[in-house]
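Re: How this chain folds, sequence and tokenised backbone to follow
Notation: Tokens come from a learned vocabulary of local backbone shapes, not from coordinates.
Start of record: The labelled sequence and token lines come straight after this line.
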Amino acid sequence: MASRLALPLGMLVLFAAALFLAAPSAVAEPYMAVREGYKCSVCHVNRTGGGARTDYAAVYEATRMAAGTTFMGVGGPIGSAGEGLHGHTGSAVNVDADVRASLVDTNMNGKGTVQFNRPASCDSCHAGTPNGAGEGGGGQIATINLQFKAVPDVASIVYSVSAVPNAASRDVYGLVESLPLNGYIKAGTFKLPNGLNNTWDYPFQHTTQGGYQGLDGFETIYATGVEVGIEPGPFTVALSVTNPDKLNTNPLGQRYFLTASAVSRLGMIGFNYAQDPVSTTQTRTLSSGFLGASLGRVTLLGQIDQIQDVDPTVGMNVSQEARLGEVDLLLARGHNLKYQVEIRDPSVAHTKDVRDRQSLVYEPFLTSWLQWRVGYRKYAGPQSTTVDNNGEMYFVEMHLLY
């Protein structure tokens, strides 16, 4: 197994070449927001996080995120406000985009593979999972976001598309802002809150992936409906009413999703609560609490998610749980070292089905448009001939962002 630690030089060269043949939204990791004391809305047009980035995010990327102090890695001062910044094409239109490509060396349940991007088994799951608009979910390897500011700081139209591996619309919504208490309302298809979990990273069996004995998790990341929210001071409260995951079996039901959080220079605290009518008799409830702490160069993250599936007509009452713990160390400007533990319990009533994944990842932002990630992951869980529960993974990833 030790020989698997070093990826062949030829593969790395091929990997780098393939990346530059691809072309590109970055989802800033939650640790960045906690470290800086930011709310999600500081960097994302979607107030609860993810998708199109704000003008401030473009400035942050260009001036504070990268290891170097030069703009776009070429030196010299930044021009007039917004000139040449990521995603800034004019006062009325913002465009931002990302491409992520990786070389992954895995050995799961005794089977070894070396391939680009996420495992094929993950792609098939994502492609087969419809989002709230009834489209394939797809893996977030290349994404493009467009924001048209019909009335600057008041009304916008946001559109996001996943270009690779499956062409699929993601965010398509109208947004009205500048309401009382820094409030807003949006309508269309948009990303649901996910606490401190990343949605673009290699998926693990947490509450947004998979289920127990045929039960689904909350795998719909994008949903269609309406959301209203307020952000007075350090607080964020938002309530969305959207189509349920199983709209085809329960056309009259609606999913309700409430999220609330507070942020300061010391960290972040919040919770999510959702009810999703899977059918006319079965209801799924999601409850999660998350916490982040900023301690100088060290950032701590933690989250606990619980899913309860209840159907009194058949006597079903199944509890699922997921836990996330993370430590991020700022080695130097632009250089982050992450240790993460994820635990997935697909049935709290069963004691021998818990799965976990541990990750150690080095993430340097060498310039404002280029991030590398080099990491190792260890998977552990019950023995199985069909599910990749046990093994390890090594990966190298390049992330280009604009």
User: Anything to note?
Assistant: Confidence is low (pLDDT under 50) at residues 1-27, 69-84, 123-139, 205-214. Residues 9-21 form the longest helix (13 residues). The helical segments are 9-21, 30-36, 40-43, 55-65, 120-128.
